[in-house]
């Protein structure tokens, strides 16, 4: 059990379900939300180590969620992985501005997602250790 | 003496005859008469000779005067002839000019007819940027009446909000480039439209630029369609990839033994199956629209009752409505319409129409709202109708016109509710293209919407199709 908290955000219940099982099976604590607004509230309350969010969601989209997280001091440093089923054409500048750690295109492999989460958290730990 | 005087009179009389003959006949004849007269005078006295000499002198004088007069007459005649020729030539030239003027008028009228007939705004300016010609569309776009605006500077006519266009027009004319093209945004009434603007320089016979022609082609709709297409690709991509993502993720989990027990495994299989069905439905929707549009769909028409078709779909839709806490009612005052074979239709297709309209009503109605289904028959009009009224978010009036368009999704709700923008288009295609019916919509933002359709009654359709 590594005990790291992952906030999984998607309005597709099956995606949240399968990602949650994969992460729990690998020792992660999973918090789930079905839209950006709900996710932002949970992020403020639970302080997850990483957020995995879908891009297109009702109420608040993935990019709107990232913007809100970055604006809030307490959540501004949380790494975000964005899942997208759309042909998302973001400029590098936009990606940098939003500080999105990784994009994964749907359909994705749960194994690949796990590896990406591990890499990002490892880098985060290395940076924190140096500081 | 008296004899001599008589002879002299005779000679004078003969001279008079001679003169008369000269005036009456040509010179040759006069000569011959004079010879004959001379012969008659042979053997006469001196008085007679004096008279003769005087008469001959008279004749000579007369002949001299006649010749002089004849010369004068000849030159006057020539002058007159020349004048007449010149007048005739002028007359011909006038006729030619008149023909040329008529041809020019006709050519101008043809040019104007062509310019007025073009479904683009066309403006022609001279080398001082003054308006030479413009069609009605240009007048409407720039807000001027051409007859009162000819030869006025185009910048004065176009107004400040069109300055981008005027600058482009001037620059092109001054640069002497043959033609240039640019996308320009211009306000047309209260709408901002996008135009493909092509400006070509007009050259005179010395190849000097003497003006320019501007053609503004409205590409607003094309741009909208292009955006809709991009949106469609994006939405369809999302809609196709989402179930596919679940199928692939659950399959991978099963292969990696991430399902702990049989119950979990069954759950994973079940998700794979439901997502595969979802994918199949979407693909079917896309293909059905394509088939209907191409006329390749197989239609199996039979007499069916709309009432029964609604009843068949109600249990599934009732479950969907209950999940969202939405009440579902049928008919006004709980009265169901009489069941009989109302329409001659493809049962599966009409079922799909009913499901699409009813699921849309539930999808766009917030929790606690209501959806009411009504059917009716108008014997006079010979139609049967179904209408579905919800208390949902409603649709703005300016979007109602396009709500049945393929890939169109209401702006305010497209991020709130999932969809591809194909459902309503499929409804329209099935009702109008396959069943000669009509779809309708009424809506008010915040109050809800009524979607429905009407179709010809069974008997009428069968008679028409026989």
Give an account of the 3D structure.
The complex is a heterodimer of chains A (131) and B (466). Chain A is of the alpha/beta class and 131 residues long. Chain A has helices at residues 13-25, 36-46, 62-71, 92-98, 110-130; strands spanning 5-9, 29-33, 50-54, 80-84, 102-105. Chain A has a single domain (5-130), classed as 3-Layer(aba) Sandwich (Rossmann fold). Chain A contains five helices and five strands, in the order βαβαβαβαβα. A five-stranded parallel beta sheet of chain A has the order 2-1-3-4-5, with helices on both faces. In chain A, strand 3, helix 3 (62-71) and strand 4 form a beta-alpha-beta unit. Chain A is globular, with a radius of gyration of 14 Å. Chain B has 466 residues and is α+β, with helices and mostly antiparallel strands. Chain B has four domains: 2-84, no CATH class; 118-218, PAS domain (Beta-Lactamase); 226-294, Signal transduction histidine kinase, dimerisation/phosphotransfer (DHp) domain (Helix Hairpins, Orthogonal Bundle), CATH 1.10.287; 301-465, Histidine kinase-like ATPase, C-terminal domain (Heat Shock Protein 90, 2-Layer Sandwich), CATH 3.30.565. Helix content of chain B is 57%, strand content 19%. Chain B contains 14 helices and twelve strands. In chain B, strands 2-1-5-4-3 form a five-stranded antiparallel beta sheet, sandwiched between helices. In chain B, strands 7-9-10-12-11 form a five-stranded mixed beta sheet. In chain B, strands 6-8 form a two-stranded antiparallel ribbon. Chain A binds chain B through residues 11-12, 14-15, 17-19, 21-22, 25, 56-59, 61, 85-87, 105-111, and chain B through 233-235, 237-242, 244-250, 252-253, 256, 258, 271, 275, 415-418.
Shape of chain B: elongated
The CATH architecture term of the largest domain in chain B is: 2-Layer Sandwich
Figure out the total of helices of chain B: 14
- What letter string, H or E per element, gives the SSE order of chain A? EHEHEHEHEH
Biggest sheet statistics of chain B: 5 strands, antiparallel
């Amino acid at each position: 059990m590594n005990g790291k908290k992952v906030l999984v955000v998607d309005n597709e219940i099956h995606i949240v379900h399968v990602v949650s099982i994969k992460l729990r099976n690998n020792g992660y604590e999973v918090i789930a939300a079905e839209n950006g607004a709900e996710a932002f509230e949970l992020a403020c309350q639970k302080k997850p180590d990483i957020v995995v969010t879908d891009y297109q969601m009702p109420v608040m989209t993935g990019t709107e969620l990232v913007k809100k997280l970055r604006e809030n001091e307490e959540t501004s440093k949380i790494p975000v992985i964005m899942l997208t089923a759309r042909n998302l054409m973001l400029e590098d500048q936009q990606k940098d501005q939003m500080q999105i750690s990784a994009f994964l295109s749907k359909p994705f492999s749960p194994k690949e997602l796990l590896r990406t989460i591990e890499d990002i958290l490892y880098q985060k730990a290395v940076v924190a250790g140096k500081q | 003496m008296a004899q001599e005087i008589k002879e002299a009179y005779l000679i004078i009389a003969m001279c008079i005859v001679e003169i008369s003959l000269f005036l009456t006949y040509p010179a040759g004849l006069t000569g011959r008469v004079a010879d004959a007269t001379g012969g008659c005078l042979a053997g006469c006295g001196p008085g007679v000779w004096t008279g003769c000499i005087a008469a001959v002198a008279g004749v000579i004088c007369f002949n001299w005067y006649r010749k002089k007069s004849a010369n004068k007459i000849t030159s006057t005649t020539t002058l007159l002839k020349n004048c007449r020729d010149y007048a005739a030539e002028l007359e011909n030239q006038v006729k030619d000019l008149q023909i040329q003027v008529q041809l020019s008028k006709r050519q101008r009228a043809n040019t104007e007819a062509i310019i007025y007939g073009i479904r683009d705004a066309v403006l022609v300016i001279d080398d001082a940027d003054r308006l030479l010609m413009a069609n009605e569309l240009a007048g409407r776009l720039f807000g001027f009446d051409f007859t009162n605006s000819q030869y006025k500077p185009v910048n004065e006519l176009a107004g400040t909000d069109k300055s981008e266009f005027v600058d482009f027009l001037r620059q092109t004319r001054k640069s002497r480039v043959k033609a240039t093209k640019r996308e320009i945004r211009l306000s047309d009434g209260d709408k901002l439209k996008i135009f493909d603007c092509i400006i070509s320089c007009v050259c005179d016979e010395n190849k000097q630029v003497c003006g320019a022609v501007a053609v503004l082609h409205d590409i607003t709709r094309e741009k909208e369609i292009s955006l809709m297409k991009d949106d469609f690709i994006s939405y369809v991509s999302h809609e196709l990839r989402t179930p596919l993502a679940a199928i692939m993720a659950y399959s991978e989990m099963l292969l990696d033994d991430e399902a702990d027990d049989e119950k979990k495994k069954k759950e994973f299989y079940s998700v794979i199956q439901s997502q595969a069905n979802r994918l199949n439905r979407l693909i079917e929707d896309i293909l059905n629209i394509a088939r209907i549009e191409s006329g390749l769909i197989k239609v199996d028409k039979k007499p069916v009752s709309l009432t029964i078709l609604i009843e068949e779909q109600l249990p599934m839709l009732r479950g969907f409505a209950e999940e969202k806490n939405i009440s579902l009612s049928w008919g006004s005052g709980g009265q169901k319409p009489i069941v009989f074979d109302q329409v001659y239709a493809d049962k599966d297709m009409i079922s799909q129409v009913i499901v699409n309209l009813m699921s849309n009503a539930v999808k766009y109605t917030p929790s606690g709202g209501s959806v009411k289904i009504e059917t009716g028959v108008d014997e006079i009009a010979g139609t049967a109708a179904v209408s579905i009224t919800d208390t949902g978010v409603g649709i703005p009036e300016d979007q109602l016109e396009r709500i049945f368009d393929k890939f169109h999704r209401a702006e305010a709700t497209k991020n709130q509710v999932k969809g591809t923008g194909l459902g309503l288009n499929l409804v329209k295609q099935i009702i109008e293209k396959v069943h000669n019916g009509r779809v309708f919509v009424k809506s008010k933002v915040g109050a809800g919407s009524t979607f429905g359709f009407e179709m010809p009654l069974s008997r009428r359709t069968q008679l028409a199709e026989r």
